[in-house]
Design goal:
Rossmann fold; Arc Repressor Mutant, subunit A; alpha/beta
Length: 393
Amino acid sequence: MIPRTLAHELSRLSEIFPVLTLTGPRQSGKSTLVRAVFPEHRYANLEHPQTRAFADNDPVGFLSELGGRAVIDEIQRTPDILSQIQVNVDEPGEARSYVLTGSQNLALANHVSQTLAGRTAVCTLLPFSHVELAAANRPAADALHWIIAGGYPRIFDTGMSPSDFHMSYVPTYLERDVRNVLSIGDLGRFQEFVQLCAGRTAQLLNYSSFASDLGVAVNTVKTWLSVLQATWVVHLLRPHHNNFSKRIIKSPKLYFVDTGLACALLGIRNPDTLKTHPLRGALFETAVVAELVKFYHNRYRRPPLFFWRDRSGHEVDCVIDDEGVLRPLEIKAGQSISDDFLSPLAHFRRLSGSSRGLVVYGGDVVQNRADADVVPWRAFTSWLESPDRTGRT
């Protein structure tokens, strides 16, 4: 098993909360992780029909058989059991410890917030980060391989090719997760929507454009997008809320959570194709943003990530707003460093008074410029952990 960064947080939080809830996309490694971190807990998987029927029909007996320390997989399949878990953890006497996992963020979050408020920590496990793979001596050969592979564990555990994995993942995702979150009659049209999203990763979200291309209502697009968010296929990056200029863009940007899945939907199967593909820059930006999202979730923190763009054309790809300390990032797929990379950061610093910027690029050389550090894609998250580089003292 490749060690997961989140394992430390799960162990720490289990000493504080009687219930842990671990969510994330299907096949991101949730079951493997919780069984490794909590080997003494009894295990039950609610995907199994007999186990689910037992939990549905007799939640008291089901939990009694598991005992006071249990891992319960795919909890969204039997959400009514959460009420009995609440009763059990509130009872005086023996301390109880439940670890719950689920693949559907929206459905699970709604049930958990209503039933276990104050009793559970909700963590998110996304596919492998580059940091996790590098620590396990499984780093990508270069940025192109990094983008195409993505981070789903099965690719690295079995040696399966990324294209083979993603070809099987898409229909499974459509038939199971999508139907469980929302009753979508025309899965073929929904798959077209998912493919369109892949083609527009790292772009401003335009509901009307999607609706026009698909021949559906804008409200349908909004509903479908909520499904992709709920199942951790896409992530929305919001515009930074401070009005350094009153003429700012207010639409969010759309990003895929896993670039390997995006590449598969776009028909990109090998690095040579990606090298000359018109979406290479957008996919590189997507990979960097995904790595940032993983960085914060793996530390049990809400990602403080935004972007900034005004109507005059000035833009910063990503702004980290960490407790009021602003850190602007520019993301460039090229392997050479250009002064053009730095000008948006200098402009943003003049407006906002932010700390030094960061340029993440596709090359291998570190440079320290006047307004920013220029950092290779392999190592940029280490810059975020250094107090002298974030502007903190």
